[in-house]
Amino acid sequence: MTINIDRHAPMRICFFGDSFVNGTGDDSCLGWVGRACEASRRGGHDLTCYNLGIRRDTSADIRLRWRREAEARLPPEYDGRLVFSFGANDGCLREDGSSVRIPHAEAVANAEAIIASAASWRPTLMVGPLPVCDEAVDRRTAELSKAFGSLCASLGVPYLEVFHLAARSETWAGEVMAGDGAHPNERGYAIIAEAFKQWEAWQAWAGYAAIADA
User: Fold this and answer.
1) C-alpha distances in angstroms, 110 versus 28, 54, 102, 151, 156?
2) Which of 61, 85, 103, 174 is the most buried (most CB within 10 A)?
């Protein structure tokens, strides 16, 4: 069966997350979100993209703000949709080094509250957290990525795992080390953007060709 995509139907999409959603470190100020939305618009889709990524935001921060910010941008009469990506900051240590900012179980609970509520309101996707090239933090983030994937599967929400894609990339690591020590530059974000653009769940929303469902 073929899914026909109406390229001319207006769509508004809110992207919620942390600095990786924001595109911090990218000299072009596009990040993976901007690149994906640019490609969709150039493909003829009437897409409005709201980048609501905030540096240092944890799952707890996003849980507090996402609904209010989304409602301001997605009136009921519009086709509004949601994409979430967070978790890297949860596993970072507090400034005093005493503990992680958000313990694993609490981060998963936050994600469940966010994604379950979002999916009951609007079409929702989730992209997994990304590495910061710190061994201890990345180990915790990898565990969260796996847990988030299981959570989304149980909720019936499409999930794109990108942690290992970035973690295995010499380009990602090289740009992180050449930059601020946590974020890549243009080529690193382009890797995530390409994976996102090719993701079937995104293609079904704002893809560049009809998707054949075998």
Assistant:
1) 32, 17, 10, 11, 17
2) 85
In terms of DSSP H, where are the helices of 156-199?
A: 163-167, 170-178, 186-198
Residue in the structure block whose two tokens are 């993976």: 32
Integer Cα distance of 89 and 78 in angstroms? 32
58, 17 contact by CB (below 8 A): no
Q: How many domains does the chain have?
A: 1
pLDDT value of residue 208: 59
Q: Cite the beta strand spans of the chain per DSSP E.
A: 2-3, 11-17, 47-53, 80-85, 124-127, 159-160, 211-212
Q: Could you tell me how far CA 203 lies from the centroid of its own chain?
A: 15
Q: Are 161 and 145 in contact (CB under 8 A)?
A: yes
pLDDT < 50: residue spans in the chain: 1-4, 209-214
Please state the φ and ψ torsions of residue 193, each to the nearest 5 degrees: -60, -40
C-alpha 211/C-alpha 4 separation (Å) is 8
The CATH number of whichever domain residue 198 belongs to comes to 3.40.50.1110
Structure tokens belonging to residue 151 = 């959570």
Give the domain extent around 78: 2-212
- What's residue 197's pLDDT? 97
Are 160 and 201 in contact by the 8 Å Cβ rule? The answer is: yes
